[in-house]
């Protein structure tokens, strides 16, 4: 059929206004070359026990989503999330924190999905249509008939008269949305300006000495009880080792030793440059005495999004972050030279203890480690 023929058959605006929803649906189909082959009502007899059972089944899943969403919010806020060492009372409940969050939020999202799926299967007419596609923009007739199609689908889905399903779906989606909102905003509630002098603030790490006690560089041996410190002769030229803070006062304190290994901003890369590379080092202003001889210590926390920058390529002296492939030049104060990171890795000032000969941190990092946050200036 030519377009002029089609235009000839188009109803006027007045006729359009007179047409029922079903007439508009048929007209829209006809104009678009759509032939509705099947459009059966899944529940031709209303109010049967089977229909009510199907309705309750859908509502059950939405209510389950609501309960799981609320459980997630409660767990996120109230579950004990502070680290508890394995041999301490409360470790069992602490160890369940992450699984409980995952299980409740996952159950909420999955239940919404199952509820929506079941509703579609049981209440939406399984229409079979064949439609011819056409080019060009939509004219008013198309727009009116399209809207009628949508309205018709809504009416035929019978959602309007199924208040149990509407309420349970609203409750489920609301609780899940609340859970997601709390999840997204929960981390922003902590005020980075609060207690800026505390070693637990965003401005400091576990390398901060609070009472003048020296903080030594401790090797990660895999045994949380083992305390193995580092002497300058321990590393070969070109080697890299991950170290953690250690205080003598914590030597027999299992909990403190474990916590030092687990704290996310504690890991530091201790790099011993080869002599020929050390001769080419460019130091950052204000950090001229942060190294000890050929030894340089950089935070392991990537300045992009905080992944562990755990790869050190001896041949090129590059530090690599596996997450998004940022690279940092260990010879030039770990400044970024490739990838999305824009800030250098924070450098830990180190020296050797005159009495014991072990490496220690002269002070905490002079800048926050890891990614940016609003209040951060450097
Ligand atoms: S977190 Fe390191 S590159 Fe993105």
From TrEMBL:
<keyword id="KW-1003">Cell membrane</keyword>
<keyword id="KW-0408">Iron</keyword>
<keyword id="KW-0472">Membrane</keyword>
<dbReference type="GO" id="GO:0016705">
    <property type="term" value="F:oxidoreductase activity, acting on paired donors, with incorporation or reduction of molecular oxygen"/>
</dbReference>
<feature type="domain" description="Rieske">
    <location>
        <begin position="265"/>
        <end position="359"/>
    </location>
</feature>
<dbReference type="GO" id="GO:0046872">
    <property type="term" value="F:metal ion binding"/>
</dbReference>
<dbReference type="InterPro" id="IPR045603">
    <property type="entry name" value="QcrA_N"/>
</dbReference>
<dbReference type="GO" id="GO:0005886">
    <property type="term" value="C:plasma membrane"/>
</dbReference>
<comment type="similarity">
    <text>Belongs to the Rieske iron-sulfur protein family.</text>
</comment>
<dbReference type="InterPro" id="IPR036922">
    <property type="entry name" value="Rieske_2Fe-2S_sf"/>
</dbReference>
<dbReference type="Pfam" id="PF19297">
    <property type="entry name" value="QcrA_N"/>
</dbReference>
<keyword id="KW-1133">Transmembrane helix</keyword>
<keyword id="KW-1015">Disulfide bond</keyword>
<dbReference type="InterPro" id="IPR017941">
    <property type="entry name" value="Rieske_2Fe-2S"/>
</dbReference>
<protein>
    <recommendedName>
        <fullName>Cytochrome bc1 complex Rieske iron-sulfur subunit</fullName>
    </recommendedName>
</protein>
<dbReference type="Pfam" id="PF00355">
    <property type="entry name" value="Rieske"/>
</dbReference>
<feature type="transmembrane region" description="Helical">
    <location>
        <begin position="58"/>
        <end position="79"/>
    </location>
</feature>
<keyword id="KW-0411">Iron-sulfur</keyword>
<keyword id="KW-0679">Respiratory chain</keyword>
<keyword id="KW-0812">Transmembrane</keyword>
<keyword id="KW-0560">Oxidoreductase</keyword>
<keyword id="KW-0249">Electron transport</keyword>
<dbReference type="GO" id="GO:0051537">
    <property type="term" value="F:2 iron, 2 sulfur cluster binding"/>
</dbReference>
<keyword id="KW-0001">2Fe-2S</keyword>
<dbReference type="GO" id="GO:0004497">
    <property type="term" value="F:monooxygenase activity"/>
</dbReference>
<feature type="transmembrane region" description="Helical">
    <location>
        <begin position="99"/>
        <end position="119"/>
    </location>
</feature>
<keyword id="KW-0479">Metal-binding</keyword>
<comment type="function">
    <text>Iron-sulfur subunit of the cytochrome bc1 complex, an essential component of the respiratory electron transport chain required for ATP synthesis. The bc1 complex catalyzes the oxidation of menaquinol and the reduction of cytochrome c in the respiratory chain. The bc1 complex operates through a Q-cycle mechanism that couples electron transfer to generation of the proton gradient that drives ATP synthesis.</text>
</comment>
<keyword id="KW-0813">Transport</keyword>
<feature type="transmembrane region" description="Helical">
    <location>
        <begin position="169"/>
        <end position="189"/>
    </location>
</feature>
<dbReference type="InterPro" id="IPR014349">
    <property type="entry name" value="Rieske_Fe-S_prot"/>
</dbReference>
